[in-house]
Amino acid sequence: MASLGDGTKLFLRDVLPDEIVRARATLKRGDGFAADVGERLDASPERQIPPCPHAHECGGCALQHWQMGPYLTWKSGLLEAALRRAGYAPALASIVATKPRTRRRIDLAARRDGATLHLGLHAPRSRDIVDIRDCHVLHPTLAALVPPMRKLLLSLTALRREADIVCNLLDTGPDLLLRTDAEPTTQDRTRLADFARAHGIRRITWSRGGDPPEVAVLTEAPVIRLSGTNVTPPPGAFLQANDAGEAAIIAAVLNGLPDKLAPRARIADLYAGCGTLSFALAARARVAAYEGDAPSVAALRAAVNANGLAGRIEPNHRDLVRQPLSAKELSAFAAIVLDPPHAGAPVQIVQIAAAKIARVIYVSCNPAALARDAAVLRVAGYSLLGATPIDQFLWSARLESVSVFARQT
Q: Per the count of CB atoms within 10 A, which of 48, 73, 322, 344 is most buried?
């Protein structure tokens, strides 16, 4: 980002700090303008050649042109700046870096153009699709599916013009959710079954528009192991971006819990999903898990029951935006762990602050939302015990983090 003399912000791609460029504003974006770089007058010594051939055209990665050392320093700075805006003087743990070709989730866009099918990710600030031939972020198992998937989609009459495919890599292999603009025919379903058999895919589900997904192919239940527990997630379920990122989040959360918990202590796991943190927390105390997505709660409940954990984990279906847990409800817990979506938890955090719980552990994927919510905790008397930046969104401007807050009782 750069600023004009009058303070107007310019949002630039493929530019590094202290570089001098000529740029042209193209469209309004928030409180500034997106701009295209026309000429680079002075390049940074931190600049490198991006490893991916799609780096300059694909909207998936924005920072492959930055050397890893200064890039990670900048990433850590995002968390530090957010916590300083909230009123803290943070001392961060070392950033946890994840490796290329480890991402286990991708949402691919597809568009039919006559006899050609475009399959890949959108270009920056555009609906145009960049055909992906290689991806330096994506796990090789998912990357290997892209060429045969292109051929499959071109053969489906269920795809008239546009589709998207959510690909999750589980412990049992790829799990696909296909959203198309027409109904699949019997022949389409046969082709999907053949594709699944050829590529070791246990489940392919299909949806049109906003309709609930239906199973198109199911040979066995797909499974992901969360802290040693087998879970069958719903189609297109949210997963942490890669194994290393998930492990780092869990480790930071567990390290942030109080050293001593009473034998019957309870932990609230808010925005629990399918139980990424719930199963890990259950080794330390009883867990009440709250999640607004009904299929995710059903998957969590099924795994809890199948593994004899009903006495340790209590799944609850609750929309924490429309019906946040009250301070009174939260007061029964020894600690609160929350992992909200990108927008953060502006409604729920007010009740958390009022509950005066001794320990709050906030998992964030958006430093701006964290800064706003952490400020509410600071006003309520919470201090910051520590914060860990986790770069599981490699070469993007997004940052995962775990921040631990404590209040004197």
A: 344
